[in-house]
Amino acid sequence: MIEVKNLRKNYHSPKSGKYAGIGTKDNLEKGISLSVPKGEVFGVIGPDGAGKTTLFRILATLLLADSGEARLSKWNVVDDYKEIRKIIGYMPGRFSLYMDMSVEENLEFFATVFDTTIEENYEFIKDIYQQIEPFKKRRAGALSGGMKQKLALSCALIHQPEVLILDEPTTGVDPVSRKEFWDMLSKLKEGGMTILVSTAYMDEATRCDRIALMREGEFIAIDTPANIIADYKQTLWSVKGDNLSSMLADIRDFPQVQTSFAFGDEHHITVDQNLTKSELSNYLSDKGYANVSIDDITPTVEDCFLALTNEEN
Amino acid sequence: MEDNIIVKVSGLTKKFGNFTAVDNITFNVKEGEIFGFLGANGAGKTTAMQMLIGLNKQTSGEAFVAGYDIRHESEKIKKNIGYMSQRFSLYEDLKVWENIRLFAGIYGMKDKEIAEKTDQLLSRLDFEDERNTLVKSLPLGWKQKLAFSVAIFHSPKVVFLDEPTGGVDPATRRQFWEMIYQAAEDNITVFATTHYMDEAEYCDRVSIMVDGRIDALDTPTNLKAQFEAKDMDEVFRKLARKATRD
After folding, report:
1. Does the N-terminal or the C-terminal CB of chain B have fewer CB atoms within 10 Å?
2. Which residues of B make CB contacts under 8 Å with A?
3. With contacts defined as CB-CB under 8 Å, which chain B residues touch A179?
4. Are A47 and B202 an interchain contact pair (Cβ–Cβ within 8 Å)?
5. Are A216 and A20 in contact (CB under 8 A)?
6. Mean pLDDT value of segment A81-85
7. Alpha carbons A164 and A188: distance in angstroms, whole number
8. pLDDT tens digit string along A134-154?
9. Which CATH superfamily is domain A2-227 in?
């Protein structure tokens, strides 16, 4: 459904000397490539500045690439942009709603743009729209974050698109509303929709069929979350105990520790293969830490991202 | 005011018409503490924070920040706090040193002190080569670190951080928290909002707002025990489920 081949877009400014864009960092010829079959939920995961929005804007026919090719269904993003706009629903990161118009007026506006009406598509958006319909006279600007997001999604869906392109729909949204949002996407997927979604929240990766980890304009991995986790090559331990914040510095001083990062109420550390847990445990007890426990753990997608970016450096 | 209480809030309330955004909240923050101020979107966090930093007037109740009364000493409060938001904190079209100079000047620091501390700061951050770089051409992670350093440059008593790590890559997010710990060790109280529940674990104490009220306030360890939850994410879900307003 979505085919991206050797795509490049360079914002490089000679003045600042800093890199920007997609597919421009290492392989100037290669660019970035991607293939998403129909009905897949595909997540592009990476921090701000990774190039997620640039990629999505090219696919949404709002930005021209320097080179390479992108197709949605049988249409090319450059030549057939008018056809593509009919089959995609695009939810940009910001400014997708008119804050001074009511909930209902926003939805009506987007319906009119696509030459349709709310009534014609009501069944299609019902599950999502019904949650905000009691507030349909309220100005969009006066909605809470979670409700704005539901309205923006309703607007992107009003013309029954084949492909949904969602650029960071959950940024700045609390954990409960984020989970609800992903539940809505799962339902749309069941209906056969292809969904391309970006996020900076690593924990959302597991809600996708496949993910691309993106950094500095490049994909550093593309696979199912399970395979990305299975490909993790380091020895990964969790360390718990009292006084975690000062423990982190002492763990870093230990020669056979490669990386150490705080993960909530524990530290995740990668270590040399020959290190045993009791060696580290003794070292930490000697340093005066109490209640230390060290365990083997399965990496999260965030661990994978940290390891992949660490390899690059 | 007790010696070691730096933010003292009692019965603070904000109404917009007949809508109560902040509903009679009472809590204290201790000096040098890292205080996590959590809540769902629309729970009232931003409004509460705005009242504390003098950007919004309370309807009723009172609060003291760094010993000053929010009702009539908001200018004194502004001199004694730092503030960093995710959206805006630095001027993109000014150079690194110009941003530092500007904010330090606004806080009334003397030129000599600014010059000395600028050198120290750039050396500590390993930023000496970027002194003359425009902020807009810095990578996001560097901007965040610089923004935080600028927010505490005048050695405020309390620094307010509004979602400081949104969208930042995982490694930088963690480096950022190490800077927060350092600030707390230097006796700067940290008052922070976040949507990352792992970051809630890094706070000394955490409050969770639901429908304008503070429904829970304790150390992460005690909150997890109280709500029989394996992590702060579960605590948050259990509490937020009680919300009735949107």
Report:
1. N
2. 39-43, 86, 133-134, 136-141, 163, 166-172, 174, 177-178, 181, 195-202, 220-221, 231-233, 236-237, 240-241, 246
3. 237
4. no
5. no
6. 94
7. 9
8. 999 999 998 877 788 899 999
9. P-loop containing nucleotide triphosphate hydrolases (3.40.50.300)
